[in-house]
Amino acid sequence: MRLFFALWPDQPVREALEAARVELFPGPVPGRPMRTENLHLTLHFIGQIDDSALDCYRHAAQEVRMQPFELVLDHAGYFPRPRVVWLGVREVPSSLKALVDDLGATLEACGHRIEARPFLPHLTLLRKVHYFDPSPIRPVSWSVRDFVLVRSQTLPEGARYQVIDRWSAS
Ligand code: ATP
Ligand code: MG
Questions:
Q1: Which ligand is the nearest neighbour of the Cα of 119?
Q2: Which residues contact 97 (CB under 8 A, 6 or more apart)?
Q3: Which atom of ligand 1 is found nearest the CA of 34?
């Protein structure tokens, strides 16, 4: 199975993210928008694992002590290579940085190799976009109280994400 850890918006935040997309692209939508129910912010991409390794990842995540934090998504940016338009945060809360670092360090026990690239929190809104000028947006505030483990499947109709576990801030 293919797994990743993520921040998973609740329904009101999903709707605010959708509204931000409509405001950014009031006309025809370029590329392929992420389905509203699929919007997420990746913390660690695990990739393909054997089913037998799942428990290790779950137990590791359970060890992590997360502090709640507020995320303010305040601008839209573009990664030209994967051709995605995303929403980002100007201020990375120290609790988010700590969550990513602590989770990454704990996951190493399961064979996970931490990304060498610095963590750039972003929430992908659209894919297959050929050009985009970065732009500020009306900020979307998101009170983050938990993180999740997601199973990802590639189906003919697109990605299917299933939240298989969740851990809350203390
Ligand atoms: P599909 O690959 O079926 O088109 P997807 O890209 O949405 O769908 P995954 O490839 O499972 O699904 O990726 C899940 C999440 O992890 C996405 O947010 C994706 O951007 C991110 N991701 C995927 N591969 C990597 C990687 N090598 N490094 C960091 N993040 C990744
Ligand atoms: Mg992918």
A1: 1
A2: 119
A3: 7
